[in-house]
Amino acid sequence: MDIQVKNIFYTYQKKATNATQALMDVSLEIKDNDFLAIVGETGSGKSTLAQMFNALLIPDKGDVLVNDYVINYKNRKSRKLRGLRRQVGLVFQFPEYQLFEETVEKDVAFGVKNFGIKGEEALNRAHEALKQVGLDESYFKRAPFDLSGGEKRKVAIAGILAINPDILIFDEPTAGFDPQSSKDLMNLITEFHKNGKTIIIITHDMDLVNIYTKRVVMLERGQVTFDGTPNELFSYIKGYDRLDTPSVIKVAEKLKEKGMDIDINQIHTNEDLVEAIKKWRNKA
Amino acid sequence: MSSMTFGRYSFRNTFIHNLDARNKIFLMLLFMVGIFFQFNMWSTALIMSGVYIIILLALMLISRVSLWSLIKSLGGLWMLVIFLMIIYIFVPTNNPKLPVAFTIGSLEVHWDAFCQAGYIVMRLILMISLTMILTSTTKPMDMTYAFEWYMTPLKPIRFPVHEIAMTLSIALRFIPTLLDETERIMKAQASRGVDFNHGGIFKRFGAIIALIIPLFVSALERSEELANAMIVRGYDPRAKRTRYRLLRFSWRDIIAFLFIGGIFAGIIVMFVFDRKNPIDLIQLIFNKPGF
Fold this sequence. Notes:
The complex is a heterodimer of chains A (284) and B (291). By secondary structure, chain A is of the alpha/beta class. Chain A has helices spanning 46-53, 81-84, 104-114, 119-132, 149-161, 179-194, 206-212, 230-236, 247-257, 270-283; strands spanning 3-12, 20-30, 35-40, 61-66, 69-71, 88-91, 167-171, 198-203, 215-220, 223-228. Among the domains of chain A are: 1-87 and 202-244, P-loop containing nucleotide triphosphate hydrolases (Rossmann fold, 3-Layer(aba) Sandwich); 246-284, no CATH class. Helices cover 37% and strands 22% of the residues of chain A. Chain A has a six-stranded mixed beta sheet, with helices on both faces. Chain B is mainly alpha-helical. Chain B folds into two domains: 2-160 and 248-287, no CATH class; 162-236, no CATH class. Chain B is 66% helix and 3% strand. Chain B contains ten helices and two strands; from the N terminus they run ααααββαααααα. Chain B has helices spanning 21-35, 42-63, 67-73, 78-90, 111-137, 140-151, 161-191, 201-232, 251-276, 281-287; strands at 100-104, 107-110. Chain B has a two-stranded antiparallel sheet with strand order 1-2. Chain B is globular. The N and C termini of chain B lie far apart (51 Å). Chains A and B meet through strand 6 and helix 3 of A and helix 7 and helix 8 of B.
Protein backbone atom coordinates (compact mmCIF):
# COMPACT_ATOMS: atom_id res chain seq x y z
CA MET A 1 0.00 0.00 0.00
CA ASP A 2 2.40 2.66 -1.14
CA ILE A 3 1.55 6.24 -1.85
CA GLN A 4 3.48 8.06 -4.51
CA VAL A 5 3.05 11.75 -5.09
CA LYS A 6 4.63 12.94 -8.30
CA ASN A 7 5.16 16.66 -8.90
CA ILE A 8 1.68 17.82 -8.00
CA PHE A 9 0.37 21.38 -8.21
CA TYR A 10 -2.86 22.71 -6.80
CA THR A 11 -4.45 26.16 -6.82
CA TYR A 12 -7.57 27.26 -4.95
CA GLN A 13 -10.10 29.47 -6.76
CA LYS A 14 -8.34 29.27 -10.07
CA LYS A 15 -10.40 31.94 -11.77
CA ALA A 16 -10.46 34.47 -8.95
CA THR A 17 -8.00 37.32 -8.72
CA ASN A 18 -6.97 36.14 -5.25
CA ALA A 19 -6.06 32.64 -6.44
CA THR A 20 -3.80 30.96 -3.93
CA GLN A 21 -1.34 28.36 -4.99
CA ALA A 22 -1.59 25.74 -2.26
CA LEU A 23 0.81 23.12 -3.59
CA MET A 24 3.78 23.67 -5.85
CA ASP A 25 5.66 20.75 -7.32
CA VAL A 26 5.25 18.42 -4.35
CA SER A 27 6.77 14.95 -4.62
CA LEU A 28 6.65 12.39 -1.87
CA GLU A 29 6.79 8.68 -1.32
CA ILE A 30 5.09 6.94 1.57
CA LYS A 31 5.88 3.31 2.22
CA ASP A 32 3.60 0.64 3.59
CA ASN A 33 3.24 0.81 7.40
CA ASP A 34 4.94 4.19 7.64
CA PHE A 35 4.16 6.49 10.58
CA LEU A 36 4.49 9.88 9.05
CA ALA A 37 3.79 13.39 10.24
CA ILE A 38 3.18 16.27 7.90
CA VAL A 39 3.99 19.56 9.61
CA GLY A 40 3.92 23.16 8.55
CA GLU A 41 2.54 26.54 9.46
CA THR A 42 -1.11 27.47 8.88
CA GLY A 43 -1.67 27.83 5.16
CA SER A 44 1.36 25.80 4.16
CA GLY A 45 -0.81 23.33 2.24
CA LYS A 46 -0.67 20.34 4.55
CA SER A 47 -4.44 19.77 4.67
CA THR A 48 -4.61 20.22 0.92
CA LEU A 49 -2.00 17.55 0.46
CA ALA A 50 -3.90 15.18 2.77
CA GLN A 51 -7.07 15.58 0.71
CA MET A 52 -5.18 14.51 -2.39
CA PHE A 53 -4.55 11.07 -0.90
CA ASN A 54 -8.20 10.05 -1.07
CA ALA A 55 -9.14 12.11 -4.11
CA LEU A 56 -11.26 14.69 -2.33
CA LEU A 57 -9.13 17.16 -4.21
CA ILE A 58 -7.62 16.42 -7.57
CA PRO A 59 -4.22 17.88 -8.46
CA ASP A 60 -4.21 20.38 -11.32
CA LYS A 61 -0.97 18.88 -12.55
CA GLY A 62 0.95 15.75 -11.63
CA ASP A 63 -0.17 12.35 -10.34
CA VAL A 64 -0.92 10.76 -7.01
CA LEU A 65 -0.61 6.98 -7.09
CA VAL A 66 -2.23 4.97 -4.30
CA ASN A 67 -1.99 1.25 -4.98
CA ASP A 68 -3.53 0.78 -8.45
CA TYR A 69 -5.41 4.06 -8.27
CA VAL A 70 -4.15 6.97 -10.29
CA ILE A 71 -5.42 10.37 -9.21
CA ASN A 72 -4.81 13.08 -11.77
CA TYR A 73 -6.66 15.76 -13.67
CA LYS A 74 -7.44 13.44 -16.57
CA ASN A 75 -9.52 10.93 -14.62
CA ARG A 76 -10.92 13.39 -12.08
CA LYS A 77 -14.50 12.33 -12.79
CA SER A 78 -13.86 8.61 -12.60
CA ARG A 79 -16.37 6.74 -10.43
CA LYS A 80 -13.60 4.36 -9.46
CA LEU A 81 -12.08 7.00 -7.19
CA ARG A 82 -14.84 6.42 -4.65
CA GLY A 83 -13.49 2.91 -4.11
CA LEU A 84 -10.22 4.52 -3.13
CA ARG A 85 -11.89 5.99 -0.05
CA ARG A 86 -12.39 2.48 1.23
CA GLN A 87 -8.63 2.05 1.38
CA VAL A 88 -7.66 5.54 2.50
CA GLY A 89 -9.54 6.82 5.53
CA LEU A 90 -9.34 10.54 6.21
CA VAL A 91 -10.34 11.83 9.63
CA PHE A 92 -10.91 15.57 9.36
CA GLN A 93 -10.13 18.19 11.92
CA PHE A 94 -12.99 18.31 14.46
CA PRO A 95 -14.63 15.21 12.99
CA GLU A 96 -17.35 15.34 15.64
CA TYR A 97 -19.26 17.73 13.37
CA GLN A 98 -20.01 14.99 10.85
CA LEU A 99 -22.24 12.89 13.14
CA PHE A 100 -25.92 12.81 12.23
CA GLU A 101 -27.56 9.43 12.95
CA GLU A 102 -29.89 8.65 15.87
CA THR A 103 -27.59 6.20 17.58
CA VAL A 104 -23.85 5.83 17.85
CA GLU A 105 -23.77 2.38 16.25
CA LYS A 106 -25.88 3.54 13.29
CA ASP A 107 -23.57 6.46 12.71
CA VAL A 108 -20.48 4.29 12.74
CA ALA A 109 -22.15 1.75 10.44
CA PHE A 110 -23.12 4.51 8.00
CA GLY A 111 -19.74 4.55 6.26
CA VAL A 112 -19.60 0.76 6.11
CA LYS A 113 -23.04 0.62 4.49
CA ASN A 114 -22.00 3.18 1.89
CA PHE A 115 -19.41 0.73 0.69
CA GLY A 116 -21.98 -2.01 0.15
CA ILE A 117 -21.83 -4.01 3.37
CA LYS A 118 -25.37 -4.50 4.64
CA GLY A 119 -27.31 -5.20 7.81
CA GLU A 120 -25.87 -7.36 10.56
CA GLU A 121 -22.36 -7.40 9.14
CA ALA A 122 -22.23 -3.59 9.05
CA LEU A 123 -23.37 -3.38 12.67
CA ASN A 124 -20.84 -5.98 13.75
CA ARG A 125 -18.06 -3.98 12.18
CA ALA A 126 -19.38 -0.85 13.85
CA HIS A 127 -19.33 -2.54 17.25
CA GLU A 128 -15.82 -3.78 16.67
CA ALA A 129 -14.58 -0.34 15.69
CA LEU A 130 -16.27 1.26 18.70
CA LYS A 131 -14.60 -1.20 21.05
CA GLN A 132 -11.27 -0.47 19.40
CA VAL A 133 -11.57 3.23 20.22
CA GLY A 134 -12.58 2.35 23.78
CA LEU A 135 -16.36 2.82 23.75
CA ASP A 136 -18.14 -0.17 25.25
CA GLU A 137 -21.63 -1.58 24.65
CA SER A 138 -23.33 1.00 26.87
CA TYR A 139 -22.60 3.60 24.18
CA PHE A 140 -24.01 1.71 21.19
CA LYS A 141 -27.61 2.84 21.51
CA ARG A 142 -26.96 6.36 22.75
CA ALA A 143 -27.57 9.45 20.65
CA PRO A 144 -24.26 10.87 19.38
CA PHE A 145 -25.34 14.43 20.21
CA ASP A 146 -25.57 13.59 23.93
CA LEU A 147 -21.92 12.57 24.16
CA SER A 148 -19.04 14.74 25.34
CA GLY A 149 -16.67 16.30 22.81
CA GLY A 150 -13.99 13.67 23.26
CA GLU A 151 -16.46 10.81 22.98
CA LYS A 152 -17.95 12.32 19.84
CA ARG A 153 -14.52 12.46 18.29
CA LYS A 154 -13.96 8.81 19.17
CA VAL A 155 -17.25 7.91 17.48
CA ALA A 156 -16.23 9.83 14.39
CA ILE A 157 -12.86 8.07 14.31
CA ALA A 158 -14.63 4.73 14.74
CA GLY A 159 -16.77 5.69 11.74
CA ILE A 160 -13.66 5.77 9.57
CA LEU A 161 -12.06 2.78 11.29
CA ALA A 162 -15.10 0.58 10.63
CA ILE A 163 -14.52 0.96 6.89
CA ASN A 164 -11.21 -0.75 7.63
CA PRO A 165 -8.91 1.31 5.40
CA ASP A 166 -5.24 0.40 5.04
CA ILE A 167 -4.12 4.00 5.24
CA LEU A 168 -5.37 6.29 7.99
CA ILE A 169 -4.92 10.04 7.75
CA PHE A 170 -5.63 12.27 10.76
CA ASP A 171 -5.90 16.02 10.31
CA GLU A 172 -4.96 17.66 13.64
CA PRO A 173 -6.30 14.72 15.66
CA THR A 174 -5.65 16.26 19.06
CA ALA A 175 -6.84 19.81 18.37
CA GLY A 176 -8.74 21.15 21.37
CA PHE A 177 -7.92 18.15 23.59
CA ASP A 178 -6.44 18.21 27.08
CA PRO A 179 -3.02 16.52 27.47
CA GLN A 180 -4.39 13.24 28.82
CA SER A 181 -6.99 12.86 26.04
CA SER A 182 -4.31 13.69 23.45
CA LYS A 183 -2.08 11.03 24.92
CA ASP A 184 -4.88 8.45 24.88
CA LEU A 185 -5.76 9.24 21.30
CA MET A 186 -2.16 9.12 20.15
CA ASN A 187 -1.66 5.77 21.89
CA LEU A 188 -4.72 4.52 20.06
CA ILE A 189 -3.27 5.70 16.76
CA THR A 190 0.02 3.99 17.60
CA GLU A 191 -2.01 0.84 18.20
CA PHE A 192 -3.47 1.06 14.68
CA HIS A 193 0.06 1.45 13.37
CA LYS A 194 1.19 -1.70 15.16
CA ASN A 195 -1.75 -3.55 13.58
CA GLY A 196 -0.23 -2.86 10.20
CA LYS A 197 -1.89 0.36 9.10
CA THR A 198 -0.09 3.20 7.41
CA ILE A 199 -0.57 6.34 9.50
CA ILE A 200 -0.27 9.92 8.35
CA ILE A 201 -0.91 12.67 10.87
CA ILE A 202 -1.10 16.33 10.05
CA THR A 203 -0.13 18.55 12.93
CA HIS A 204 1.87 21.48 14.11
CA ASP A 205 2.36 20.03 17.57
CA MET A 206 6.06 19.24 17.71
CA ASP A 207 5.68 17.26 20.93
CA LEU A 208 3.47 14.75 19.11
CA VAL A 209 5.95 14.52 16.29
CA ASN A 210 8.80 13.94 18.70
CA ILE A 211 7.13 11.22 20.72
CA TYR A 212 5.25 9.20 18.14
CA THR A 213 6.50 9.51 14.58
CA LYS A 214 9.47 8.08 12.72
CA ARG A 215 9.42 10.42 9.78
CA VAL A 216 8.43 14.04 9.29
CA VAL A 217 7.70 15.97 6.13
CA MET A 218 7.61 19.74 6.40
CA LEU A 219 5.69 21.93 4.00
CA GLU A 220 6.38 25.60 3.54
CA ARG A 221 4.21 27.66 1.21
CA GLY A 222 3.17 24.59 -0.71
CA GLN A 223 6.59 23.07 -1.10
CA VAL A 224 8.32 20.21 0.70
CA THR A 225 11.32 21.77 2.41
CA PHE A 226 12.24 18.97 4.76
CA ASP A 227 11.90 15.19 4.83
CA GLY A 228 13.64 13.20 7.56
CA THR A 229 13.57 12.11 11.19
CA PRO A 230 12.08 14.27 13.96
CA ASN A 231 15.51 15.01 15.46
CA GLU A 232 16.86 16.24 12.15
CA LEU A 233 13.79 18.46 11.88
CA PHE A 234 14.38 20.06 15.26
CA SER A 235 17.83 21.22 14.28
CA TYR A 236 16.43 22.37 10.94
CA ILE A 237 13.68 24.54 12.42
CA LYS A 238 15.89 26.48 14.84
CA GLY A 239 14.91 30.07 14.37
CA TYR A 240 11.36 29.46 13.13
CA ASP A 241 8.93 31.43 15.25
CA ARG A 242 5.83 29.43 14.74
CA LEU A 243 7.20 25.90 14.90
CA ASP A 244 8.42 25.30 18.37
CA THR A 245 11.05 22.78 19.39
CA PRO A 246 9.57 20.24 21.84
CA SER A 247 10.09 21.22 25.46
CA VAL A 248 12.02 17.99 26.29
CA ILE A 249 14.51 18.71 23.55
CA LYS A 250 14.89 22.30 24.74
CA VAL A 251 15.71 21.12 28.27
CA ALA A 252 18.12 18.50 26.96
CA GLU A 253 19.89 21.10 24.82
CA LYS A 254 20.26 23.47 27.77
CA LEU A 255 21.69 20.62 29.89
CA LYS A 256 24.13 19.74 27.14
CA GLU A 257 25.21 23.38 26.90
CA LYS A 258 25.99 23.31 30.63
CA GLY A 259 28.27 20.37 30.10
CA MET A 260 26.08 17.32 30.60
CA ASP A 261 26.91 14.56 28.13
CA ILE A 262 23.56 13.63 26.55
CA ASP A 263 22.75 12.20 23.11
CA ILE A 264 19.83 14.39 22.05
CA ASN A 265 18.90 12.07 19.19
CA GLN A 266 17.87 9.42 21.70
CA ILE A 267 15.43 11.66 23.55
CA HIS A 268 11.75 11.57 22.65
CA THR A 269 9.81 11.51 25.91
CA ASN A 270 10.26 12.87 29.42
CA GLU A 271 11.19 9.35 30.54
CA ASP A 272 14.01 9.23 28.00
CA LEU A 273 15.45 12.43 29.43
CA VAL A 274 15.27 11.10 32.99
CA GLU A 275 17.08 7.94 31.90
CA ALA A 276 19.78 9.96 30.14
CA ILE A 277 20.35 12.12 33.22
CA LYS A 278 20.55 9.03 35.45
CA LYS A 279 23.06 7.42 33.10
CA TRP A 280 25.20 10.57 33.10
CA ARG A 281 25.11 10.74 36.90
CA ASN A 282 26.14 7.10 37.29
CA LYS A 283 29.04 7.71 34.97
CA ALA A 284 30.19 10.80 36.83
CA MET B 1 -20.45 27.12 -4.84
CA SER B 2 -19.59 29.34 -7.83
CA SER B 3 -23.24 29.44 -8.90
CA MET B 4 -23.92 31.78 -6.00
CA THR B 5 -22.34 34.74 -7.77
CA PHE B 6 -25.70 36.16 -8.91
CA GLY B 7 -26.16 39.60 -7.47
CA ARG B 8 -23.29 39.30 -5.03
CA TYR B 9 -21.65 42.53 -3.96
CA SER B 10 -18.49 43.26 -5.88
CA PHE B 11 -16.24 46.09 -4.89
CA ARG B 12 -15.88 48.78 -7.55
CA ASN B 13 -15.56 52.51 -7.46
CA THR B 14 -18.40 53.65 -9.69
CA PHE B 15 -21.04 56.33 -9.53
CA ILE B 16 -23.74 53.85 -8.52
CA HIS B 17 -21.56 52.12 -5.92
CA ASN B 18 -21.00 55.44 -4.22
CA LEU B 19 -24.66 56.34 -3.90
CA ASP B 20 -26.33 56.37 -0.51
CA ALA B 21 -27.97 52.98 0.10
CA ARG B 22 -31.22 54.57 1.30
CA ASN B 23 -31.43 56.62 -1.86
CA LYS B 24 -30.62 53.61 -4.00
CA ILE B 25 -33.39 51.51 -2.48
CA PHE B 26 -35.92 54.33 -2.85
CA LEU B 27 -34.98 55.05 -6.46
CA MET B 28 -35.07 51.39 -7.37
CA LEU B 29 -38.57 51.06 -5.93
CA LEU B 30 -39.66 54.22 -7.76
CA PHE B 31 -38.36 52.90 -11.06
CA MET B 32 -40.07 49.54 -10.46
CA VAL B 33 -43.39 51.23 -9.79
CA GLY B 34 -42.90 53.15 -13.02
CA ILE B 35 -42.20 49.96 -14.91
CA PHE B 36 -45.44 48.45 -13.68
CA PHE B 37 -47.69 51.18 -15.08
CA GLN B 38 -50.11 49.48 -17.43
CA PHE B 39 -50.48 51.19 -20.80
CA ASN B 40 -53.60 51.07 -22.89
CA MET B 41 -52.00 50.82 -26.30
CA TRP B 42 -49.46 48.32 -27.47
CA SER B 43 -47.46 50.96 -29.33
CA THR B 44 -46.85 52.96 -26.11
CA ALA B 45 -46.01 49.77 -24.28
CA LEU B 46 -43.47 48.87 -26.95
CA ILE B 47 -41.84 52.29 -26.97
CA MET B 48 -41.64 52.43 -23.18
CA SER B 49 -40.19 48.92 -23.01
CA GLY B 50 -37.44 50.07 -25.35
CA VAL B 51 -36.79 53.09 -23.13
CA TYR B 52 -36.66 50.91 -19.99
CA ILE B 53 -34.23 48.49 -21.55
CA ILE B 54 -31.94 51.31 -22.70
CA ILE B 55 -31.96 52.85 -19.21
CA LEU B 56 -31.27 49.47 -17.64
CA LEU B 57 -28.34 48.80 -19.97
CA ALA B 58 -26.98 52.25 -19.19
CA LEU B 59 -27.26 51.54 -15.45
CA MET B 60 -25.47 48.23 -15.91
CA LEU B 61 -22.75 49.93 -17.92
CA ILE B 62 -22.25 52.60 -15.24
CA SER B 63 -22.24 50.12 -12.37
CA ARG B 64 -20.15 47.61 -14.36
CA VAL B 65 -22.46 44.72 -13.63
CA SER B 66 -21.84 42.17 -16.32
CA LEU B 67 -24.67 41.52 -18.76
CA TRP B 68 -23.48 37.95 -19.17
CA SER B 69 -23.96 37.06 -15.51
CA LEU B 70 -27.48 38.47 -15.73
CA ILE B 71 -28.30 36.36 -18.79
CA LYS B 72 -26.90 33.29 -17.08
CA SER B 73 -29.00 33.87 -13.99
CA LEU B 74 -32.15 34.31 -16.08
CA GLY B 75 -31.77 30.83 -17.54
CA GLY B 76 -34.24 29.40 -15.05
CA LEU B 77 -36.97 31.79 -16.20
CA TRP B 78 -37.95 29.71 -19.23
CA MET B 79 -40.41 27.65 -17.22
CA LEU B 80 -42.14 30.85 -16.12
CA VAL B 81 -42.39 32.13 -19.68
CA ILE B 82 -44.05 28.92 -20.87
CA PHE B 83 -46.37 28.92 -17.89
CA LEU B 84 -47.46 32.53 -18.54
CA MET B 85 -47.99 31.79 -22.24
CA ILE B 86 -50.32 28.91 -21.40
CA ILE B 87 -52.27 30.99 -18.90
CA TYR B 88 -52.68 33.93 -21.27
CA ILE B 89 -53.70 31.70 -24.16
CA PHE B 90 -56.45 29.90 -22.25
CA VAL B 91 -57.79 32.91 -20.40
CA PRO B 92 -59.84 35.05 -22.83
CA THR B 93 -58.47 38.57 -23.28
CA ASN B 94 -60.58 41.56 -22.17
CA ASN B 95 -61.54 43.78 -25.10
CA PRO B 96 -58.79 42.61 -27.47
CA LYS B 97 -57.33 45.18 -29.81
CA LEU B 98 -55.47 42.84 -32.11
CA PRO B 99 -56.92 40.27 -34.52
CA VAL B 100 -57.38 36.58 -33.83
CA ALA B 101 -54.21 34.50 -34.11
CA PHE B 102 -55.89 31.08 -34.09
CA THR B 103 -58.89 29.32 -32.59
CA ILE B 104 -59.03 26.26 -30.38
CA GLY B 105 -62.56 24.95 -30.62
CA SER B 106 -64.75 27.89 -29.68
CA LEU B 107 -61.88 29.75 -27.97
CA GLU B 108 -60.46 32.63 -29.95
CA VAL B 109 -56.83 33.39 -29.16
CA HIS B 110 -55.91 36.97 -29.98
CA TRP B 111 -52.41 38.27 -30.62
CA ASP B 112 -52.96 40.29 -27.46
CA ALA B 113 -52.33 37.15 -25.40
CA PHE B 114 -48.78 36.85 -26.71
CA CYS B 115 -48.10 40.55 -26.35
CA GLN B 116 -49.39 40.46 -22.78
CA ALA B 117 -47.25 37.46 -21.84
CA GLY B 118 -44.16 39.00 -23.45
CA TYR B 119 -44.79 42.32 -21.74
CA ILE B 120 -45.11 40.70 -18.32
CA VAL B 121 -41.96 38.62 -18.76
CA MET B 122 -40.03 41.67 -19.96
CA ARG B 123 -41.07 43.62 -16.86
CA LEU B 124 -40.15 40.72 -14.61
CA ILE B 125 -36.69 40.56 -16.17
CA LEU B 126 -36.32 44.30 -15.68
CA MET B 127 -37.24 43.94 -12.01
CA ILE B 128 -34.76 41.13 -11.48
CA SER B 129 -32.01 43.09 -13.22
CA LEU B 130 -32.70 46.16 -11.12
CA THR B 131 -32.54 44.14 -7.92
CA MET B 132 -29.32 42.60 -9.11
CA ILE B 133 -27.80 46.01 -9.77
CA LEU B 134 -28.83 47.08 -6.29
CA THR B 135 -27.39 44.05 -4.51
CA SER B 136 -24.17 43.97 -6.47
CA THR B 137 -23.43 47.65 -5.91
CA THR B 138 -24.44 47.96 -2.24
CA LYS B 139 -22.59 46.46 0.68
CA PRO B 140 -24.93 44.11 2.59
CA MET B 141 -24.21 46.03 5.77
CA ASP B 142 -25.19 49.35 4.18
CA MET B 143 -28.37 47.72 2.95
CA THR B 144 -29.36 46.63 6.44
CA TYR B 145 -28.57 50.09 7.80
CA ALA B 146 -30.80 51.54 5.11
CA PHE B 147 -33.62 49.18 6.03
CA GLU B 148 -33.20 50.13 9.64
CA TRP B 149 -33.39 53.80 8.71
CA TYR B 150 -36.60 53.23 6.75
CA MET B 151 -38.15 51.36 9.67
CA THR B 152 -37.34 54.08 12.23
CA PRO B 153 -40.88 55.53 12.12
CA LEU B 154 -42.09 52.19 13.52
CA LYS B 155 -39.98 52.52 16.65
CA PRO B 156 -42.58 54.45 18.72
CA ILE B 157 -45.03 51.57 18.37
CA ARG B 158 -42.38 49.22 19.87
CA PHE B 159 -41.62 47.50 16.61
CA PRO B 160 -38.21 45.77 17.08
CA VAL B 161 -36.47 47.75 14.34
CA HIS B 162 -32.93 47.39 15.57
CA GLU B 163 -33.34 43.68 16.34
CA ILE B 164 -34.60 42.97 12.84
CA ALA B 165 -31.75 44.91 11.27
CA MET B 166 -29.25 43.04 13.47
CA THR B 167 -30.77 39.66 12.57
CA LEU B 168 -30.60 40.60 8.92
CA SER B 169 -26.97 41.63 9.05
CA ILE B 170 -25.97 38.50 11.00
CA ALA B 171 -27.79 36.33 8.48
CA LEU B 172 -25.95 38.03 5.61
CA ARG B 173 -22.65 37.74 7.43
CA PHE B 174 -23.08 33.99 7.91
CA ILE B 175 -23.85 33.02 4.32
CA PRO B 176 -20.18 32.53 3.34
CA THR B 177 -19.41 30.82 6.66
CA LEU B 178 -22.19 28.31 6.12
CA LEU B 179 -21.06 27.70 2.55
CA ASP B 180 -17.58 26.83 3.85
CA GLU B 181 -19.15 24.61 6.47
CA THR B 182 -21.21 22.85 3.81
CA GLU B 183 -18.11 22.14 1.79
CA ARG B 184 -16.29 20.80 4.84
CA ILE B 185 -19.13 18.45 5.84
CA MET B 186 -19.55 17.29 2.25
CA LYS B 187 -15.89 16.33 2.18
CA ALA B 188 -16.08 14.60 5.55
CA GLN B 189 -19.09 12.55 4.43
CA ALA B 190 -17.44 11.81 1.09
CA SER B 191 -14.61 10.27 3.10
CA ARG B 192 -17.24 7.97 4.57
CA GLY B 193 -18.28 6.87 1.11
CA VAL B 194 -21.16 9.25 0.43
CA ASP B 195 -21.48 10.06 -3.24
CA PHE B 196 -23.18 13.41 -3.78
CA ASN B 197 -22.97 13.33 -7.56
CA HIS B 198 -24.05 9.87 -8.64
CA GLY B 199 -26.80 7.44 -7.78
CA GLY B 200 -30.59 7.32 -7.78
CA ILE B 201 -33.01 9.65 -6.07
CA PHE B 202 -33.15 7.69 -2.78
CA LYS B 203 -29.39 7.48 -2.51
CA ARG B 204 -29.09 11.19 -3.12
CA PHE B 205 -31.77 11.93 -0.57
CA GLY B 206 -29.80 9.94 1.99
CA ALA B 207 -26.68 11.86 1.05
CA ILE B 208 -28.48 15.17 1.56
CA ILE B 209 -29.62 14.10 5.04
CA ALA B 210 -26.03 13.31 5.97
CA LEU B 211 -25.24 16.89 4.97
CA ILE B 212 -28.24 18.81 6.30
CA ILE B 213 -28.31 17.47 9.86
CA PRO B 214 -24.68 18.23 10.73
CA LEU B 215 -25.09 21.61 9.04
CA PHE B 216 -28.09 22.46 11.21
CA VAL B 217 -26.37 21.27 14.34
CA SER B 218 -23.30 23.38 13.66
CA ALA B 219 -25.40 26.41 12.69
CA LEU B 220 -27.32 26.18 15.96
CA GLU B 221 -24.12 25.79 17.93
CA ARG B 222 -22.61 28.76 16.17
CA SER B 223 -25.64 30.91 16.90
CA GLU B 224 -25.48 30.02 20.55
CA GLU B 225 -21.79 30.86 20.68
CA LEU B 226 -22.42 34.17 18.96
CA ALA B 227 -25.28 35.02 21.31
CA ASN B 228 -23.05 34.28 24.29
CA ALA B 229 -20.24 36.37 22.85
CA MET B 230 -22.65 39.27 22.36
CA ILE B 231 -24.00 39.03 25.90
CA VAL B 232 -20.48 38.88 27.33
CA ARG B 233 -19.62 42.10 25.55
CA GLY B 234 -22.68 43.78 26.98
CA TYR B 235 -24.82 43.89 23.87
CA ASP B 236 -28.18 45.47 24.53
CA PRO B 237 -30.51 45.95 21.57
CA ARG B 238 -32.28 48.85 23.28
CA ALA B 239 -29.14 50.80 24.01
CA LYS B 240 -28.35 53.90 22.01
CA ARG B 241 -25.29 53.38 19.88
CA THR B 242 -23.08 55.25 17.48
CA ARG B 243 -21.97 53.83 14.20
CA TYR B 244 -18.63 53.43 12.49
CA ARG B 245 -19.97 53.71 8.97
CA LEU B 246 -22.36 56.53 8.29
CA LEU B 247 -24.75 56.82 5.39
CA ARG B 248 -24.34 60.20 3.77
CA PHE B 249 -26.36 62.00 1.15
CA SER B 250 -24.04 63.58 -1.43
CA TRP B 251 -24.25 65.48 -4.72
CA ARG B 252 -24.30 62.12 -6.51
CA ASP B 253 -27.54 61.26 -4.78
CA ILE B 254 -29.14 64.47 -5.91
CA ILE B 255 -28.15 63.78 -9.51
CA ALA B 256 -29.43 60.19 -9.32
CA PHE B 257 -32.62 61.38 -7.67
CA LEU B 258 -33.25 63.96 -10.37
CA PHE B 259 -32.50 61.41 -13.10
CA ILE B 260 -34.83 58.65 -11.86
CA GLY B 261 -37.40 61.23 -10.75
CA GLY B 262 -37.35 62.65 -14.26
CA ILE B 263 -37.86 59.22 -15.73
CA PHE B 264 -40.75 58.60 -13.39
CA ALA B 265 -42.34 61.90 -14.39
CA GLY B 266 -41.84 60.96 -18.03
CA ILE B 267 -43.60 57.65 -17.44
CA ILE B 268 -46.58 59.48 -15.91
CA VAL B 269 -46.75 61.88 -18.83
CA MET B 270 -46.72 58.95 -21.24
CA PHE B 271 -49.41 57.27 -19.15
CA VAL B 272 -51.75 60.25 -19.39
CA PHE B 273 -50.96 60.75 -23.07
CA ASP B 274 -51.66 57.06 -23.64
CA ARG B 275 -55.15 57.33 -22.13
CA LYS B 276 -56.08 60.37 -24.24
CA ASN B 277 -54.69 59.42 -27.64
CA PRO B 278 -56.82 56.90 -29.46
CA ILE B 279 -54.42 55.90 -32.26
CA ASP B 280 -52.51 52.69 -31.66
CA LEU B 281 -49.92 52.20 -34.37
CA ILE B 282 -49.52 48.48 -33.74
CA GLN B 283 -53.26 48.04 -33.91
CA LEU B 284 -53.20 49.82 -37.28
CA ILE B 285 -50.46 47.57 -38.62
CA PHE B 286 -52.17 44.39 -37.43
CA ASN B 287 -55.59 45.40 -38.74
CA LYS B 288 -54.27 46.33 -42.18
CA PRO B 289 -55.92 44.20 -44.85
CA GLY B 290 -53.56 41.48 -46.07
CA PHE B 291 -51.66 40.97 -42.81
